[in-house]
Amino acid sequence: MTDHAAPAAIAEPPASPSRVDRRGMALYGLLGFAAGLPFYMFSTVLALRLQAHGVALAVIGFFAWVQLLPTLKFVWAPLLDRYAVPGFARFYGKRRGWMMLAQLGIFASMVAMALTAEDASLPVTALFAVLLAFWTTTLEVAADAWRIELYPTQDEQGPIVAANLWGYRSAMVAAGSGALLLADWSGWSIAYLAIAAAAFLPFPILAAMRGHEDRDAQRLPALATGTVASVFILLVGAAATAAIGWLVLTLAAGAGIDAGANVTPWVLGICMLPFLAMAAALPRIRRAPADAPIRRSAAIGPYVDFFWRYGFAALVLMAFVSLYRMGDVLALNLSKPMIKDLGYSLSQIGRADSVVALVASMVGVGLAGWLVTRWAMTWALALGALVAAIGNFGFVWLAGQPVDEGLLYVATGADQFGNGFAGAVFVVYLSLLVNPRYPGAQYAFLTGFAFLLPRLLSGAGGTIVRAIGYDDFFLLSGVLSLVAIVFLPALARIRPRTEELE
């Protein structure tokens, strides 16, 4: 029997692009905007805020591990496929209900970060940054699952992904540049409050949309009960996160991890564990019949399905996706502190991250969205890796130039074009690997694993820079992006098993 949900690992380009769904593009542009606004606030902007308060570079690097939350989203993604948010789901449906809860979580977390903007207690700063990352990721999981359900083919995915990333990157630029400019003028608290208000704007738009059964009389009761349930969920989530965070910090202190510790060898060792675990489990997974409990399990069935379909080729796929965005992730947290150390002001960095970054990023995303409807994925992925590497090498070039805002624009534009192009191609590629039977869980797993190794290493970025310097760090990150190209001939030959679960 054939599996209707098993695309080739590298799909051929469609014969003719389908008609563009403009309403879908507008919707996913909005959802991308909602998810993109908070991202810089717990990554790049937070790194500069900590630097301004005299926090050591190694500790700033540790804060990059907050970005591990998106890589671990497969842990709670099955809950979004299985359960609905009380109140909201009754009128808006499961996917939109989760999006609305996530929007409330994003707003509350960013307001909390604004009220603690002096960073007098780094554990408190870390708590609210983790909550912001968690709810941002939850919004993305729900939106991605809905996208894969609505647009399952490569030619449909291209324009929708482009629109989603246009919204996402527009929001990242608005948050990044806007927050830095506001911080330079009025302080970090005002910057975070302003972005929190902007991030909340999509909520009333989602609330005003038609319900899945179009019963307008149920709208206000659904909003009221959904909001009350959301407040309870947010409070329980914050308490649980605080308890887990206290335990992690206690264990880290006991292990001697501090600003002077060399954590790189430990991080590399941890990075190998997922590959070893997958290799050990694959023989049993490949032998599992359709009615095996591990294939029907609500908790692990979606992930077992991926390895059952691809077998040992899944290890090649996972190694490739771990490397593909490596350069961009490594550069994200430390590029702005490096630029600040070169002598550029927050306002100069903010201006570079505004129009220049936005235009370059949107051109990259748009070009990628167009090319994936016409090129084989192999060639699109190869070009994405190349332009991403060039963007990283641009920081090395900038470090050797005199301080000049125009040169900063050139380096920023190259970085954002490469980041946008590679990101759009990568989203389409990962979407094609997903079995539509489990869209939320499998896409969350793939995107989470794709950024696990880069973000683990990013947390050790401060200690790596201390050892080899900024120039060699960005040379290394660019070369790692290029290494992904070596995998493409093998990926082009990978095909999944096609037996269908009964």
UniProtKB/TrEMBL annotation:
Q: Which GO terms describe its cellular component?
A: membrane
| Keyword tags | Membrane, Transmembrane, Transmembrane helix, Transport
Task: State its location(s).
Answer: Membrane
Residue ranges of the TM segments:
26-48, 54-76, 97-117, 123-146, 189-208, 220-246, 266-285, 306-324, 354-372, 379-400, 406-432, 444-467, 473-492
* Primary location recorded for the protein, binned into one broad class: membrane
The topology of this chain with respect to the membrane is:
Multi-pass membrane protein
- Protein name as it appears in the record: Muropeptide transporter
Organism field: Sphingomonas jeddahensis
**Highest classification ranks of the organism:** Bacteria, Pseudomonadati, Pseudomonadota, Alphaproteobacteria, Sphingomonadales
